[in-house]
Write a structure and sequence with these properties.
Keywords: ATP-binding, Nucleotide-binding, Transport. The chain is of the alpha/beta class. It is built from ten helices and 14 strands. Helices cover 32% and strands 27% of the residues.
Length: 315
């Protein structure tokens, strides 16, 4: 998080950002963040953490109380038109003119950003999103998943350099979700910077280059995904017992064992990167206390485990 980036490598630069609403609620607290060009950056946090407010301020839709945001080196407040033209935003809400056709609503959005007519660009966007066959359909006739695809098409219509996806796959079935992420990968390959918020942590784990965690309006962690998994992820050793036990013997309390599955399994968490995992000693100690082992298996902590642990530590 302390790594410095050159202007050429930075898509979005946020410095000491605060947002306090008229009610007195402080939605963002001293947020500083650098988002690199061409990366997929996932912003994770519980409901009310400030994800949507942060996106709104970067897009120039919410005026910050303090701090500075640069998009491509341009200030989002004093150069709003310039920065907004560089950004595509897919909001959570399905807000579309229900009686327009798919083609007309996407073409109209392109025009709003001052872009001239380019049917080839729009056709590619609609084909990539599997909307080409629906181009003449009125929005009112589309399913919720297809309407969300239209929102993405609208956000891409003016060929932005940066794309914000605010819970883009909420309410979308598995097949549509998979198609949308293929589009996101293609966009990244073409140099588009992607910033997404999601409740589907497995998507962030699969898709993102870096992960940011926000809680109560504060950025509590920013890390490369793989480094985060290695730094904070632990492995669980599941020890299946030949015979169930009612409780972990008091003499073994210091080992941090958790009894599960009606007393038939002990779970031991350990740092897989440590020089000594202590597993051999643990197994020997269990044998000394007459606890016979049937089988052993390990499980790597997921990003969701890490995320929940971070929030638990903050509470």
């Amino acid at each position: 998080m302390n790594q410095q980036f050159t202007a050429a490598a930075t898509a979005v630069s946020i410095s000491h950002l605060d947002k306090t609403y008229d009610t007195g609620f402080q939605a963002l607290k001293n947020v500083s963040l650098e988002i690199r060009k061409g990366e997929i950056f996932a912003l994770l946090g519980p409901n009310g953490a400030g994800k949507t407010t942060l996106i709104g301020t970067i897009c120039g839709l919410v005026r910050p109380t303090a701090g500075k945001i640069l998009v491509g080196g341009h200030d989002v407040v004093t150069e709003f038109r310039k920065t907004r033209s560089m950004i595509g935003l897919v909001p959570q809400e399905l807000t579309t003119d229900r009686f327009e056709t798919v083609w007309d609503t996407v073409a109209f959005t392109r025009g709003l950003f001052g872009k001239g007519r380019n049917d080839a660009v729009l056709e590619k966007i609609l084909r990539d999103l599997s909307l080409w066959d629906k181009r003449n359909d009125k929005l009112i006739t589309l399913s919720g998943g297809m309407k969300r695809r239209v929102l993405i098409a609208k956000a891409l219509s003016h060929e932005p350099e940066i794309l914000f996806l605010d819970e883009p796959t909420a309410g979308v079935d598995v097949e549509l979700r998979r198609d949308m992420w293929n589009v996101v990968r293609d966009l990244r390959e073409n140099g588009v910077t992607i910033i997404l918020t999601t409740h589907y942590i497995e998507e962030a784990e699969e898709m993102a280059d870096r992960i940011g965690v926000i809680s109560s309006g504060e950025i509590i962690l920013v890390e490369d995904k793989m480094a985060l998994m290695q730094k904070l992820g632990k492995k669980d050793l599941a020890i299946q017992l030949q015979e169930p036990i009612e409780a972990v013997p008091a003499a073994l309390a210091a080992l941090g064992l958790e009894l599960q599955n009606e007393g038939t399994e002990l779970v031991h968490s350990y740092d897989s990167h440590a020089d000594r995992t202590g597993i051999a000693t643990l197994i020997g100690t269990l044998n000394e206390h007459g606890i016979r082992i049937k089988d052993l298996s390990t499980r790597q902590s997921s990003l969701e485990d890490i995320f929940i642990g971070l929030l638990r530590d903050r509470s």
